[in-house]
Specification:
This protein is an alpha/beta fold. The chain has 13 helices and 14 strands. Helices cover 41% and strands 16% of the residues. A 6-stranded parallel beta sheet has the order 11-10-9-12-13-14, with helices on both faces. Strands 5-6-7-8 form a 4-stranded parallel beta sheet, with helices on both faces. The protein starts with 11 loop residues before the first helix and ends with a helix.
Length: 362
């Protein structure tokens, strides 16, 4: 597999690649992952470095990728030495090792498209340049209908939809007493210095939430500098908001399991919403921005509450209503737990393997 983004930086694509690699290894396949690796990154033994990453602004975030002659040499060497039955390239339109892999060999190639935007000028402008490489792809996968429609719009062709997956059993956490609020617990998980993750919207809702429920605990977890977000919380409410920093998988599961509501106040740029599935797997009722990707994961609102993106007042209103309604929270919790097994890697891996087998036979 080729991952375009640094594995040392949290992200949906990186998590997807790691989980898929583990799933494939678990059923006896040999796996090699080519990805950017920085000096401080701790990576699994199946990872081969495509070089040190550099930050490139993209889609409201900063993508850490590798590109250039040195990366090209590493890609070619990896492909030559590997003699792989299948090369699975993630985000093949990203200027990175992914597109270089397509330029450097003839396949067989499988590609997964993760990104969604309403319109990408960059992708439209680059389509003709990328087309010779993209035509080498033997099978295309999109993680959602939105990602598939973006691919069709800008590149053409078709793709099968196989969503992002997770190991649902890993989210059976245990609530930690020190994280539980007397008047309920709300949690947020996302990169703190990435505005599109919407932490600022949640912070704006804090006064209204705590005015109604003085013992409410709000947990904020994720990488990035928390100073600015902490300063934005009015002084008299800061004891209610606990910034946990970057947490490991066990703490993540415990935080979600102890949450009366998981809030996803993202502002845009999402193609799927794996964090919603993680919350559902842990039994946390979900309150999320009404983005196309989130609406799809939440089945139009059946599996979680939706509110207008960026509207802190509506976020507070809907959160307070849920906190005051245990029956409604239990309804969402049960619906989420029933729906999430569809996304377990035990279900998704056979779908991916059928794609691999198809292109390998070709």
């Amino acid at each position: 597999m080729v991952c375009p983004y640094s594995l040392g930086t949290p992200g949906g694509v990186q998590n997807h690649v790691r989980d898929l690699a583990e799933a494939l290894l678990g059923v006896g396949h040999e796996v090699s992952v080519l990805a950017p690796v920085d000096d401080s990154d701790a990576v699994p033994p199946y990872v081969v470095s495509s070089g040190r990453a550099v930050g490139v602004p993209y889609n409201g975030s900063v993508a850490r990728v590798t590109f250039g002659p040195r990366t090209a040499a590493r890609v070619k060497s990896w492909l030559t030495e590997g003699q792989f039955d299948v090369v699975h390239v993630h985000e093949p339109t990203t200027p990175s090792a992914s597109i270089i892999a397509l330029w450097s060999a003839d396949g067989p190639f499988v590609s997964t498209f993760h990104t969604w935007q309403v319109r990408s000028r960059a992708m439209s402008a680059a389509a003709s340049l990328l087309r010779p490489a993209l035509e080498k792809i033997d099978a295309r996968i999109a993680v959602s209908e939105n990602a598939r429609s973006m691919m069709v719009q800008h590149i053409g062709g078709e793709a099968v939809v196989i969503p992002n997956g997770l190991y649902t059993a890993r989210f059976k956490g245990s609530p930690r007493a020190e994280w539980i609020g007397d008047n309920g617990t709300i949690s947020f998980l996302g990169r703190l210095d990435e505005p599109r993750k919407g932490l600022g919207v949640l912070v704006k809702a804090v006064p209204a939430l705590i005015a109604e429920r003085p013992g409410l605990r709000i947990l904020v977890a994720g990488s990035g500098q928390a100073d600015e977000a902490r300063r934005a919380v009015p002084g008299r409410f800061r004891d209610n908001v606990l910034f946990l920093g970057e947490i490991d998988d066990d703490a993540r599961a415990d935080m979600l399991a102890g949450s009366d509501i998981y809030v996803a106040p993202h502002l845009g740029g999402e193609s799927f919403g794996i964090v919603l599935l993680e919350a559902m797997a842990a039994g946390a009722p979900v309150l999320a921005s009404d983005l196309a990707a989130f609406r799809q994961v939440l089945d139009g609102g059946r599996l979680g509450e939706l509110f207008e993106p960026g509207n802190a007042g509506e976020l507070a209103q809907r959160a307070l209503r849920l906190l005051g309604s245990p029956d409604e929270r239990e309804k969402l919790r049960s619906a989420g737990l029933s729906a999430v097994p569809r996304y377990d890697w035990s279900v998704l891996l056979p779908e991916l393997l059928s794609v691999y087998e198809l292109v390998a036979r070709r």
